[in-house]
Amino acid sequence: MFKILLDRKEPSMEAVRKHQNFQEILAAYNYQKKVNNPWRYWYYPALTICLLLLV
Amino acid sequence: MPLQFSLQQQSFLPSEERTQIERAQQDPRYFAPLYERYHDAIFRYVYRRVDEEEQAYDITSSVFVKALQSLHKYEYRGLPFGAWLFRIAKSELYQSFRDQKAQRTVSIDKVVLKQVIDEWTEDYTEEDKARLLVALKDLKEQQLQLIEMRFFEKRSFKEIGDICGMSENNAKVKTFRAVLKLKEFFHQKE
Fold first, then answer.
1. What is the Cα–Cα distance from B152 to B83, expressed in whole angstroms?
2. What is the spatial distance between Cα B47 and Cα A16, in angstroms, rounded to a whole number?
3. Is some CB atom of chain A closer than 8 A to the CB atom of B106?
4. Phi and psi for B109 in degrees, rounded to 5?
5. At what angle do helices B110-120 and B126-137 cross, to 10 degrees?
6. With an 8 Å Cβ cutoff, are A26 and B108 in contact?
7. How much is the ipTM here?
8. Residue ranges covered by each domain of chain B
9. pTM for this structure?
């Protein structure tokens, strides 16, 4: 079921722009990309093994 | 006055936009001009469909994150970039309704409501207004979406078709049927 709102006041363009900016979106995207990277769990163990092998 | 969100109001040329998209596909930092152009329209599209402002901001933000994640898949084949973003917004919105994170809301301006009723009855009364609101609740979700976009947001059939993934003609026919249904429900409530 939905709700009906009559003559609802909308925030101004300025207010919307102040509330959200592209840098936040880009940061969220970069974070998601980092979290979703399947290699992130393997990176440090692989690096450690390589270093041990070198030693 | 109802706010207009028309995609056709954008003054940028598709070729310029295409260049911006190609640059953004190489480096997401170049997505900024596209974000600036469409953010407000997407936010208002979402805002009119959820009951809380903060949820509208959250959904809008996830729309743009999703857009950045799938930007490499976007290919210009006649579907305007704005419509592609609206499709993501639509899918994010319905996901949040399914997850019960947001309440489905229909925002209507009384002026528009009066315009619709004026076409069907001779004298507009408060009772008619109440009847139309009840009749709206009897519509199926897709019919409601079409009525919402065509009458409450004044979108063209081309835009409606692009957003809903159907041809302009199909959008016209389906909207016409939705109006007939609404009219039928409206008169049933007499």
1. 18
2. 11
3. yes
4. -90, 135
5. 90
6. no
7. 0.79
8. 10-98, 110-188
9. 0.85
All residues at 6 or more sequence positions from B57 whose CB lies less than 8 Å from its CB, including other chains = A19, A20, B43
State pLDDT tens for residues B64-96. Answer: 999 999 999 998 877 889 999 999 999 999 999
CB contact under 8 A, A8 and B133: no
Q: What is the pLDDT of residues A14-34, one digit of tens each?
A: 999 999 999 999 999 999 988
pLDDT of B2 > 50? The answer is: no
Which residues on B lie below 8 Å from A17 (Cβ)? Answer: 39-40
Helix (H, G, I), strand (E, B) or coil at A2: coil
Considering only CA atoms, which of B135, B160, B134 is closest in space to residue B148? B160
Q: CA angle B169-B170-B176, nearest 5°?
A: 90
Q: Which CATH number fits domain B10-98: 1.10.1740.10, 3.40.50.1820, 3.40.50.720, 1.10.10.10?
A: 1.10.1740.10
Dist CA B132 CA B179 (whole Å): 12
How far apart are the C-alpha atoms of B137 and B167, rounded to whole Å?
26
Per the structure block, which two tokens stand in for B139?
């519509």
The closest CB to that of A6, out of B65, B103, B108, belongs to: B108
CATH assignment of B110-188, among 1.20.140.160, 3.40.50.450, 3.30.1360.40, 3.40.640.10 = 1.20.140.160
